[in-house]
Design goal:
9-stranded parallel beta sheet, TIM Barrel, alpha/beta, about 25% helix, 8-stranded mixed beta sheet, about 25% strand
Length: about 375
């Protein structure tokens, strides 16, 4: 049992037991379906937890030179790298840190492939394709919307693939189901089916939320096996991010003030939505607070306000069985994926501390932040 009083506020707390449960499921899918599943750093890059991750999944995907270097240094393996645009400055190091590199456009491939050849063709090159189909309804997270800069559309590949392309990559899911993947694969085959026998690997990107309760894992395994039987030349690669860290921890905060304006009560906490939970405002979605109850059960309604100067740094409403008071602790559930990787120090607000509650029932502080962290970012 986690001893909340031991935890400083604010603090992200990763629960090792829950992380391992996700990793076991992901590894099972990988082995039963006969595919490669790798960790997407863009959702979860807490490298002090990588020793646990590596026990189950040894590879990762990177979207930048820093992520690729992190894969090399802390995962101990070369990255599967994709970026919307590479630069002459970064590309030589990307070759050093990557086993696979996916190009977003034909022009990027033409520009940088000579460097791959000059390096001895040690990296397998792929091209990101745009299936022009997605079930994602939020445009911010839909890379196949009309006019998207992500990937090559099929009408630009009527003459086939350029020499040197060994794989194809698509990413059009976001916290999606296996049935969403099935529909996406139908769109891939419709637009790019003629190219699939020509390549060695197909990267199905991320968004496969296989660790979510109710996800049809058996359907996913059947779907992947069936696709592999249809295209036996392909190595299938999947790179989920959220699935690894889904519901593996929380953000602990403390109420520091309660204000009221025209009958609306706001509990201000020592954390910030815009600084520490940005997806809540971007998506948007309302996270679960452990102490809150349903509207029918809670007589006391509150907005929760962040401690930055941004007027919109709040969400509401949550309901409680008793009034909130200064010093009350509030736990925001499922705050490990797409939070720690997105934190910022707007307003000079410190990052929350980062801790792990181990399977031995101990709190281990992984990182605490101070003034020097803020000052160095501003230099």
């Amino acid at each position: 049992m986690i001893l909340i009083d031991q935890i400083p506020s604010p603090c992200y707390v990763l629960e090792e037991r829950l992380l391992r449960e996700n990793l076991k499921l992901i590894k099972e899918v990988k082995e039963r379906a006969g595919v490669s599943i790798i960790l997407a750093f863009k959702a979860f890059a807490l490298w002090k937890a990588f020793p646990v991750v590596r026990e189950y999944i040894p590879y990762s995907t990177a979207s930048s030179i820093y992520e690729a270097r992190l894969a090399y240094e802390e995962m101990g393996s070369l990255a599967h790298t994709y970026s919307p645009a590479y630069t002459e400055q970064d590309f030589p190091n990307l070759l050093k840190y990557s086993s696979h590199i996916t190009f977003n456009s034909l022009s990027q491939f033409d520009r940088f492939y000579p460097m791959v050849v000059a390096d001895g063709n040690k990296v397998s090159c792929g091209l990101r394709i745009n299936p022009e189909f997605s079930v994602v309804e939020t445009d911010l997270y839909n890379p196949t919307a009309p006019g998207s800069r992500m990937g090559v559309v099929s009408n630009l590949l009527t003459d086939g693939l350029p020499a040197g392309i060994e794989g194809l990559h698509f990413h059009s899911l976001c916290e999606s189901s296996s049935y969403d993947l099935e529909r996406t694969l139908e769109a891939i085959e419709k637009r790019f089916g003629a190219l699939l026998p020509q390549v060695k690997w197909l990267n199905m990107g991320g968004g496969h939320l296989m660790t979510r309760k109710g996800y049809d894992v058996e359907h996913l395994i059947r779907l992947l096996k069936g696709f592999k039987e249809k295209y036996p030349n392909l190595e299938i690669i999947m790179e989920p991010g959220s699935a690894f860290a889904w519901q593996t921890g929380f953000l602990l905060t403390t109420v520091v003030d309660v204000v009221e304006n025209h009958g609306i009560r706001t509990a201000i906490i020592d954390a910030s939505f815009t600084c520490h939970m940005p997806d809540c405002l971007e998506m948007p979605y309302q996270p679960v607070i452990r102490q809150a109850v349903s509207k029918e059960k809670g007589a006391y309604a509150y907005r929760i306000g962040g401690n930055s100067c941004l007027s919109g740094d709040f969400m509401g409403d949550w309901y409680f069985t008793k009034p909130l008071r200064v010093g009350d602790r509030l736990i925001f559930e499922d705050m490990i994926h797409y939070t720690i990787v997105k934190t910022n120090m707007f307003n000079g607000i410190p990052h929350p501390s980062i801790a792990m509650w181990t399977r031995e029932e101990k709190l281990v502080m992984l990182r605490e932040f101070g003034y020097e962290d803020y000052k160095h970012r501003m230099s």
